[in-house]
Design brief:
The protein has about 300 residues and is mainly β. It is about 5% helix and about 45% strand. It has one helix at about 5-20; strands at about 35, 40-45, 55-60, 70, 80-85, 90-95, 100-105, 110-115, 120-130, 135-140, 155-160, 170-175, 185-190, 195-205, 205-220, 220-225, 230-235, 240, 245-255, 260-270, 275-285.
């Protein structure tokens, strides 16, 4: 059994490390997209402040046409304003004090939730980032196609993809239980794809953010961070996500996950030809009989 405090510390360290691992140039949404007509947790990543600024003090997301907002996640110390207009709604987070602002070197996710349109194609979220000094309007949209290459301040792109049911086999999936107040936990499973595929995105209503993490030795300490570019699933090979190894990190948990309950989760895949597909899972909370539950917590020396 994990001591709750150990898990808490690990999850916090985890989020922090993920922040230092990658310097994001833009305000972005996770890769992997969303299936047509589905409910989507849009986690906008802010990885840096405006040029020459010390901190991010505000973020305003303009909702694209066709995206139906259901709610937005509050941030501690930040004021949340939601304007639900059909067609041109806006969600705005504003730091209430300099202490609450997001320091330049830290990454954070600003999360809102809604339904994506029923037709495939890119959706562009224009985001105004305000800092202690200046602001950047991430609002450029390519004239055609969906590549943001060459744009100086591109809007955040969400690929809405057609329903395609993945043929990836998922077994022995489970989610580690959590206690009230705990911010993060892990999910584990065995995946086998018939042809070379990548797991490129994960969403679950149980968490604000879900991503695949890898464990890496840095010097003599074990660290975890988001797997860059997704999880490779070579043809016919079983890839295991397990405690102490690669795992699904669930952050910003909405509530405590009790043993015996289930967690819905959507996995998004992309094969070598760029064909996208998804899989809906319902994972039990609590380790199954005989699962390797060796807690990673005590092995993490951050
Ligand atoms: Cu992790």
């Amino acid at each position: 059994m994990n001591h709750p405090r150990t898990i808490l510390k690990t999850a916090a360290a985890c989020a922090l490390l993920a922040g230092t691992a990658a310097a994001f140039a833009h305000v972005t949404l996770p890769r992997g997209g969303a299936t047509v007509g589905s409910d989507y947790n849009a986690a906008f990543r802010v990885g840096h402040a405006c040029e020459g600024a010390k901190a991010t003090t505000g973020l305003a997301v303009r909702l694209p046409k066709g995206f139906l907002l259901s709610d937005a996640q509050a941030r501690k110390g930040w004021k949340l304003d939601v304007q639900k207009n059909a067609g041109d709604g806006e969600v705005r987070w504003t730091a209430e004090s300099p202490q609450a602002a997001l320091p330049a070197g830290e990454r954070a996710e600003f999360v809102l939730r809604g339904k994506v349109p029923g037709t495939p194609g890119p959706l562009w979220f224009k985001v105004l980032q305000t800092c202690d000094v200046g602001s950047i309007d991430w609002a450029e949209v390519p004239a055609s196609g969906s590549s943001t290459a060459g744009l100086k301040s591109p809007a955040a792109r969400l690929d809405v993809v057609a329903q395609g049911v993945a043929t990836v086999d998922v077994r022995d999936g489970w989610v580690r239980q959590s206690v009230p107040g705990q911010s993060g936990t892990g999910a584990f499973m065995k995946l086998t794809a018939p042809t070379g595929t990548k797991l490129v995105g994960i969403t679950t209503p149980a968490a604000g953010v879900a991503e695949v993490h890898e464990m890496k030795m840095e010097g003599d300490t074990m660290k975890m961070r988001e797997l860059p570019g997704g999880l490779d699933l070579p043809a016919g090979q079983t890839v295991e996500l397990k405690p102490g190894g690669n795992h699904v990190m669930m952050m910003d948990l909405k509530q405590a996950l009790a043993k015996g309950s289930t967690v819905p989760m959507t996995l998004r895949f992309e094969d070598a030809k760029g064909q996208k597909s998804s899989l809906e899972l319902n994972l039990p909370v609590g380790a199954p009989e005989g699962a390797d539950t060796a807690a990673p917590a005590h092995q993490h020396k951050h």
